[in-house]
Amino acid sequence: MASVTRRAHxxxxxxxxxxxxKLLDALEALLAxxxxxxxxxVERLAARAGVSRSTFYVHFADKGQLLSELTADVVDQxxxxxxxxxxxxxxxxxxxxRAKAETIVATYRPRAELMRAVIDSSSHDPxxxxxxxxxxxxxxxxxxxxxxxGQEAGTVRRDVPPGPTAQMLxxxxxxGLDRMLRGADDAAARDAVEAFTAIVWNTxxxxxx
Length: 209
Description:
Number of helices: 9
Keywords: DNA-binding, Transcription, Transcription regulation
Order of helices and strands: HHHHHHHHH
Number of strands: 0
DNA-binding region: 41-60
Pfam family, one: TetR_N
Domain HTH tetR-type: 17-78
Radius of gyration: 20 Å
Helix content: over 70%
Shape: elongated
Oligomer: single chain
Strand content: under 5%
Structural class: mainly alpha
InterPro entries: EthR_C, Homeodomain-like_sf, HTH-type_TetR-like_transc_reg, HTH_TetR, Tet_transcr_reg_TetR-rel_C_sf
């Protein structure tokens, strides 16, 4: 009986993951067409995803819960991309940092419309705001640790306060990537990479002892 129960739970989890992926694709398509997250109804979203309205509500209490789960997934992807920069030793050169910035921008760019929906919803939906703050708080904590470690090793400038600097860089990246990458062409994406590289390099590594 236990094995049957596990298989049933596994099948339900798989169906839920498949429906979540369909809803993500549908939501991103609707947002790219110019609709706001607030305007998109559950009925329209479910129909675009090819799932029934009742199936949507089997998995999610409302659109806010769906967005919270999508936010967690996307932020995890961005966190993994960001760790290519701050999760290792400081970049050996500005070109090295630029390569890491390219990975971050390439990860964010396909999800730019969804991240705009998250940012907008977090201003009035407490549940989305709580999830978003908790997840992005991980950026701040890890970047601050990177700065502190680099300062101890002499590879990061010692005149920058780790916590506040990490908070500022995170906030700037959130807003900057949002503004620069929604609907961006390749040239705009390259500009975002260069801007990110210049800000981080000059803030943390240039003229480090």
